[in-house]
Amino acid sequence: MKTEDITTSLDALKQTNNRASVLTTNELASITMIEATALAAARKYFAESGFTEVLVPHITKVTGACENIDTLFELDYFGQNAYLVQTGQLYLEALIPKLGKVFCIGSSFRAEPDIDERHLTEFALVEIEFPGDFEQLLVHIENIVHAMIHAAAVCSEIEALGISPERLKAVTKPFARITYTDAIKKLNEMGVDIEWGDDLKSRHEKILAGNAPLFITHYPEAIKFFNMRRNENPLLVNSCDLILPYSGEAVGAAEREYDHGQLLDKLEKSSMYKMLLERGKTIEDFKWYLDIVSEHPIQHSGCGIGLNRVMQFILGSDDIRACTAFPMNRESLM
Amino acid sequence: MKTEDITTSLDALKQTNNRASVLTTNELASITMIEATALAAARKYFAESGFTEVLVPHITKVTGACENIDTLFELDYFGQNAYLVQTGQLYLEALIPKLGKVFCIGSSFRAEPDIDERHLTEFALVEIEFPGDFEQLLVHIENIVHAMIHAAAVCSEIEALGISPERLKAVTKPFARITYTDAIKKLNEMGVDIEWGDDLKSRHEKILAGNAPLFITHYPEAIKFFNMRRNENPLLVNSCDLILPYSGEAVGAAEREYDHGQLLDKLEKSSMYKMLLERGKTIEDFKWYLDIVSEHPIQHSGCGIGLNRVMQFILGSDDIRACTAFPMNRESLM
Q1: Is A333–B80 a contact, with Cβ atoms under 8 angstroms apart?
Q2: Is 80 exceeded by the pLDDT of residue B144?
Q3: Mean pLDDT rounded to a whole number for chain A
Q4: Chain A neighbours among B 101-160 (CB < 8 Å)?
Q5: What order of strands is seen across the sheet that includes strand A59-60?
């Protein structure tokens, strides 16, 4: 692995002020072609596996929010309070009863003021939802991410950037797995100060993953999105994050709760919902979603794959700004 | 053509208040599958023709605006005045020097307060830019739209909706063409009260198109986007709109001006720019784009294809709200 070379060739692409000055560089052309190749590989998998593409809304009520509602961009929508979407998940889930496997690829927005190597205000999210269980979910994620990485490995632009395709070709299925509980134990054994119930930080994830993709499964319910399905152990949910070297968490995934009573209970107890109440919101905004789950109680699962995070692994870059043509942050508006 | 049947089967999908109530209908599943089929056909053409996909920003300065800046959604972007993108055109154009043929598929936003069969606040736009001339542009548009329509024609969901695939299979290349000037003459001969220099209204476009796609070419410079390339007749630009039955204007296209002096002159004289000055904007916001054109004066052309408008033709529907899963307007926010 030629990490130093990679860093050098992509260095100029970290620039987000005056982004225009790097738009006509060979390096930017190369990463754009690699990104397009990875996207096409995901789409090929969706076509072969019977997933239908859905165009979800990007201006939403709170049902377009993920856990961290503090990073919602607000918008005046003809006098109504609206947000830029963070996840199309609930909109995709609504189509499962008739369409089965569905996916969307689009922008996720976060009002992140930080200008650094980890935060973007807009990034591409590849999301799937389908009727099926937790094991099937992990297989889909493995297949999609594996396809993206291996398609990139044979893209001629990889070598043009001085990146060794061997590191990418070495990625094999199945990906390693560890439970959240075992991950905490392992970190403690390594002397890391973290307790069961804490969320894993990026630095923890990178230690655990080492040089290969790693699934961390079965997180505590308290730190995850409200509709993740409860495990037989009621403290846990059937969730999983995929951790990649260079980027950390690249995929968030879970089996979804489809028991209406449980779902309502989980929503009302969620920290996200408490934050929404403080902002004057009510359960009413979620009514349409709860109603669809109530009328169509189908076991289903899904995930969101951060394209730029997968690209960080492909390019071997610690800096998300170097991995897409238009990395959006506070200073890159153009 | 079974127009009445089609209208009947799609009637329920026109509803934009309480949209959730139609999300699990067979009809909505059918139109979503047809939309996905049409999108996949466009992507197949792009892959076969050497176009690279680009992810463009959806929060922009005024360079993300199209002609009608009155319909920009405004956003507070960390104290800066920002907008939701209406076209990724200038961002795509910036990548032509190194990438050649490029495309993007994403949301275009319009703050349209009307709730009716023609207006949406968010819709999918398929945009291409490439090094090449006006004739090559029309061939690309023909090929893309033809591919979308014919892919839909063989999708089983078409017959499930009671739509005759024969109407779609009857669409052949090349599409008919008429110049704007001849179109005005023809309308006048038909007794329509319209003068040279007026923009064509939807009702005019439908009269001209009849039952088949129609290119209207070479519009007056004064009513078109600032960077459309001037024709040998200096009153005209090398532009073209594709008109489809049921929807009207489905594609806006043009050769782009690549002479820096001409481009600057055209920008400063454009009605869009005058409106921007009134809002306190300066030429500065366009500087990065003007600089790239100045440094890379390459003949190039491009277009934006309104997916929902193509879907209206495919479905034989006069109502854009019936042609996508999540038609966005003032009342459909969810």
Answers
A1: yes
A2: yes
A3: 95
A4: 106-107, 109, 111, 113, 121-122, 124
A5: A59-60, A80-84, A74-77
Establish if A331 belongs to a structural domain. no
pTM of the model: 0.96
Instruction: State whether A55 and B325 contact (CB < 8 Å).
Output: yes
Cα B73 from Cα B83, distance rounded (Å): 6
Chain A, 165 to 224: residues with Cβ < 8 Å from chain B are none
Average pLDDT over residues B323-330: 98
Run of H or E residues at A153 = helix A134-153
Using the beta-carbon criterion (under 8 Å), do A61 and B99 form an inter-chain contact? no
Cβ-defined contact of A23 to B94 (cutoff 8 Å)? yes
Q: Is residue A217 part of a domain?
A: yes
Domains of chain B: total: 1
Q: What is the DSSP string of A202-216?
A: HHHHHHHHTTS-EEE
Averaged over A116-136, what is the pLDDT?
97
Please give the share of chain B, as a percent, with pLDDT higher than 90.
91
Residue A333 is nearest to which of B61, B91, B99, comparing CB atoms? B61
Q: Does A298 touch chain B (CB under 8 A)?
A: no
pLDDT value at A8 more than 70 = no
Q: Give pLDDT, residue A9.
A: 79
Q: What pLDDT score does A272 carry? A: 86
Structural contact between residues A40 and B51, judged by C-beta atoms closer than 8 angstroms: no
Statement: residue B5 has pLDDT above 50: no
* DSSP notation for B193-222: ---TTSPPPHHHHHHHHTTS-EEEE--BGG
Would the pLDDT of A56 be above 70?
yes
Q: Determine, for residues A60 and B333 on separate chains, whether the beta-carbon distance falls below 8 Å.
A: yes
Domain-located, residue B329: no
- Give the model confidence (pLDDT) of A255-293 as tens digits: 999 999 999 999 999 988 888 888 888 889 999 999 999
What 3-state DSSP class applies to B250?
strand
Residue B141 to residue B118: CA distance in whole angstroms: 22
Reported confidence tier of residue A1, pLDDT bands at 50, 70, 90: very low
CATH number at residue A254: 3.30.930.10
Q: Tell me, yes or no, whether B330 lies in a domain.
A: no
Residues of B in contact with A307 (CB under 8 A): 55
First vs last C-alpha separation in chain B: 35
Helix (H) or strand (E) holding A138: helix A134-153
Q: Is the pLDDT of residue B253 over 50?
A: yes
Instruction: Tell me what ipTM this predicted complex has.
Output: 0.96
Q: How far is CA A291 from the centre of its chain?
A: 26
Note down the domain range covering A186: 3-323
Nearest CA in chain A to B77: A330
- Among the residues of chain B, which ranges form H helices? 3-10, 26-48, 89-93, 96-99, 134-153, 156-160, 165-169, 180-189, 202-209, 260-269, 271-278, 287-295, 307-315
The answer to whether the Cβ–Cβ distance between A28 and B121 falls below 8 Å is: no
Q: What is the pLDDT of residue A6?
A: 53
